[in-house]
Amino acid sequence: MLSAFDANWSLMTPEIVLAVLAMIIFTIDFMTGIHGKKPFLGRLSIIALLVTAVLVIFVNPQGGTIGHIFILDPFSMIFKVILLVAVAIVIAISMYYVEKNEDIYQGEYYSIMLFATLGAMLMVSSADLITLFIGLEIVSISSYVLAGFKKHRKKSTEAAIKYVILGGAASAFILYGMSFLYGLTGTTSLYEIGAAIPGVYEQYPFMIMLSLLFMVVGFGFKISVAPFHMWAPDVYEGSPTSVTSFLTVVSKLAAFALVMRVLFIGFGGIIEEWAFIIAVIAALTMILGNLIALAQKNVKRLMAYSGIAQAGYLLVPIAAAFNINVSASTIAFYGVAYVLMVLGAFAVITFVTEESGNEDIASFSGLYKRSPYLALAMGVFLVSLAGLPATAGFIGKFYIFVGAVSGDMLWLAIIMIAMSIVSFYYYFGIIRQMFMREPKTSLDGQPAGTLKAPAGISTVVGVSLAGTIILGFFPGILINFFNSFNWMFMFF
Amino acid sequence: MVPVTFFLALGAVLFCIGLYGVLTRRHLVVVLVCIELMLNSVNINLVAFSSIGPFANITGQVFSLFIFTVAAAEAAVGLAILIALYRNRESIDVIKQDIMRW
């Protein structure tokens, strides 16, 4: 048995550093009084996240494990770097948002977001049901708090209470599934469960299927796939816009990493039993997400349905997993593209909705006349989300398509293409507003003036724009890098 | 000795009662209580497996301690949000929380 002193605790350096920095930010916050603007805490948070990302890359690059509970393999390292950079971008967007909304307690906001990031890091590198659940709950509970952060706004508190109740029920589902898995295998370690599962499945097929389905329901809720998606539009619409971008990108990607780990390692031995279930869920998600998005008028709600559809695309490589390494690098590439295009779009959305004071799609009307740079950038992000060539989104979708075809799931690939075409309609709805409509006149008949984006927002937009276009033209840089890994290398 | 299946049945019944409560109750505090009920049914399962299951070992009890802790944190956040909601809406009736739909 491994004692606590034998473990190689240096593997957790990035997590420990981030936890300490989050605590320091929390402390500085209550030392400087609860009210007031605190942009320095936002900058400090971004620095903390980037320092942690550097530590993830340079401390223990060869990987390792602490008793098969906490593992550091290429999979967890790459997802940690993606998540940390994504949260840094989210905080850059948030710094603008909290300037505009004085009722948000800024210090608490930043520190809770950092704690959520810590949970996400724990999620992607845990290989044990207990740590995995703890990481998931750290992210979830922080997200409940963040969703209700504008506590005097009816929409925000309503979103938070819906999120708490449905999230709590989903956690109970996950745990109920896990309890049977533990009972039938006698261990909570995913590697040991993975080794035992083919034999146990022979013996108790129904119990294992029951536990698998309960876990799929719970995880499906966390990654918001149909038919467990109904919380997402309400929560995304009601939450503060910067928190919406956090939920769309960070919570979802971390939960995806978790789902891959559980399905590939824990249930890898009975892949033919669950691949079809996941494929059906993916198809349903793509169809429902894209079709319901057509009817949306609120831009945050539209992005929520678009996020549901994107979750469907991301499930395709998991369902068609003929090779774990190919699936993992496809998902990681689409994850990078997703972070860039969604966060870029959210930077523009946050700016435009805050300036115009309403969240209707019509608030984008005439954006090209008011701010050509933002309008063009938003156009590129939307084209990339729709999956047109010369953007990162196209390359990502192309790899998912190829993976689905070589995994013998041609029907799924066809649904994916058909639904991408449907998605053009609602993405181009926003583009039409930006380029082909005149700016709305204000109440006293004055045309709306030009918009000047603050430095933070234009930096985020610039970085995301550059990334989206560069990955669209030279995807080889990242793909060759990702393909050189043995993603879920096991340490024994 | 009582077989482990009896405890599993108790857990399943509690889980279903909790789920029924979450889906049908209109009072938000009762809904939160029902979520606790669902989580505690998991604890019964884990403790039963850990003492008289086919592979009895201590891990299940450790797992259930973690679940207690998380359930307490979740209840604390849930009740705090409930109070914020009550201040905004003067009601914690589930079906009246309908500003956002579709």
Q: How much strand of chain A?
A: under 5%
The poorly predicted ranges of chain B are none
- Major sheet characteristics of chain A: 2 strands, antiparallel
What's the number of helices of chain A?
19
- Shape field of chain B: elongated
Q: Which oligomerization state do the chains in this entry correspond to?
A: heterodimer
Lateral arrangement of strands in the main beta sheet of chain A = 1-2
User: Sheet with the most strands of chain B?
Assistant: none
Q: What is the terminal separation of chain B in angstroms?
A: 52 Å
Structural class of the helices, strands and pairings of chain B? Answer: mainly alpha
Q: In brief, what are we looking at here?
A:
The complex is a heterodimer of chains A (492) and B (102). Chain A is mostly helical. Chain A contains 19 helices and two strands.
Give short descriptive properties of this protein:
heterodimer; A: 492 residues; mainly alpha; 2 strands; globular; B: 102 residues; 3 helices; 75% helix; 0% strand; elongated
Structural features, described:
- The complex is a heterodimer of chains A (492) and B (102).
- Chain A has helices at residues 13-31, 39-58, 74-100, 106-124, 129-147, 154-185, 190-203, 205-222, 231-238, 241-266, 271-293, 299-319, 324-356, 367-370, 372-386, 392-406, 410-436, 455-473, 476-483; strands at 64-66, 70-72.
- Chain A is mostly helical.
- In chain A, β1 and β2 form a beta hairpin.
- The longest helix of chain A has 33 residues, at 324-356.
- The mean pLDDT of chain A is 90.
- By secondary structure, chain B is mainly alpha-helical.
- Helix content of chain B is 75%, strand content 0%.
- Chain B is built from 3 helices and no strands.
- Chain B is elongated.
- The relative contact order of chain B is 0.14.
- The model of chain B has no long low-confidence stretch (mean pLDDT 92).
- Chains A and B meet through α5, α6 and α9 of A and α1, α2 and α3 of B.
